[in-house]
Amino acid sequence: MTDLHCKYFSDLGEPSLKVITYRNYGPPEVLKLEEWEIPIPKSIQIRIRIVKTAVNSGDWRVRKPDPQIARLYFGLFKPKNPILGLSYSGVVDAIGEGVTSFQVGDKVLGSKGIKMGAYAEYTIVEENSLIIKLPDKMSFAEGAGISFGGLTALDFINRCQIQNNQKVVIYGASSSVGSSAIQLAKHLGAHVTAVCSKANFELVKSLGANETFDYETFFADSNQNLYDVFYECVGKTEIKSNLKYLKKNGNLVLVGATFRQMFQALFLKLIKRLNVHFGPIEETLENLKFLVSLVNLGKYKVNIDRNYPLERMVDAHRYVEAGHKKGNVVIDVTSER
Ligand SMILES: NC(=O)c1ccc[n+]([C@@H]2O[C@H](COP(=O)([O-])OP(=O)(O)OC[C@H]3O[C@@H](n4cnc5c(N)ncnc54)[C@H](OP(=O)(O)O)[C@@H]3O)[C@@H](O)[C@H]2O)c1
């Protein structure tokens, strides 16, 4: 459950915060602006004034929900926690008496993970959660955009142990996960082929892709290339098509695998002994620190497609759910002061 409490305190002259809720599952229009009580941090809790959050594919999937089985975790008939939003950047605004590594005024970034709750002007997190200081080199927008695609891409990159000069194809390269995966694979010395629409060729090249393919024609018979890693980011292809392009003992990554594909992948892994990687990722502090260290070294860029104000969350969800964002969509929550 959320750490925030809905009390509509503004009517009573008490301090309040703006929050976007979804009281029922459904289309973007279920998202509503409410005013809630500002929470007080206890013990090792930190209160953050959120400056930016992001709308990720995970948010709209939970909102619908898609797949419906997600109700088992998020609430059978209606959402248990009515606030979406995984990633955030902001300023530490108050701390519990046991907090030692953060101070009021620190600029931070982090992820609330599957517990969510970042679509709010203030949030409470634990000191030992996925939170780190925002480096001077990073903007608040980059801080909010880095964790969803970045942590997902890195978790799967680590699973396939990419070696120098290996040939890696990133399918769905303009997505949040794909735009991160290109850069991480390049960092490991891979030769990266990015598959995306023609409109995004320049973007993926700017992130380091060695060559580009249009996703409309990649699977044409004329394409005879074989790859060490087939990294499918968007769940838009058939596994049997991907396997045709994989070298013997290569790694197949299925970031956005559907349930049907997960069963297929399990069969390939257990019975055919293929290197297939799928399923939920683990968000770790170590991985978040690694991504931020790459930003500091100038070796990783968080691609921001657009910003929306908090009040236009419905429009932001419509845009992200349409499935054509380039990298990340950021929400302006409070001022950067
Ligand atoms: N396993 C896990 O734990 C985990 C974690 C996070 C996310 N995911 C899943 O990973 C997937 C990607 O998430 P995301 O947030 O990175 O997605 P996203 O940013 O919302 O993806 C949008 C991008 O996909 C591209 N795209 C759409 N149709 C395509 C196609 N047929 N071929 C190639 N590219 C296409 C779009 O390019 P155009 O505009 O050019 O069409 C657009 O740039 C989602 O399915 C998500 O649920 C899984």
TrEMBL record:
Coiled coil: none annotated. One of its GO terms (molecular function) is oxidoreductase activity. Pfam families: ADH_N (PF08240), ADH_zinc_N_2 (PF13602). Gene3D superfamilies: Medium-chain alcohol dehydrogenases, catalytic domain, NAD(P)-binding Rossmann-like Domain. SUPFAM superfamilies: GroES-like, NAD(P)-binding Rossmann-fold domains. InterPro entries: ADH-like_N, Chloroplast_QOR, ER, GroES-like_sf, NAD(P)-bd_dom_sf. Residues 26-331 form the Enoyl reductase (ER) domain. This is NAD(P)-dependent alcohol dehydrogenase. It comes from Leptospira jelokensis.
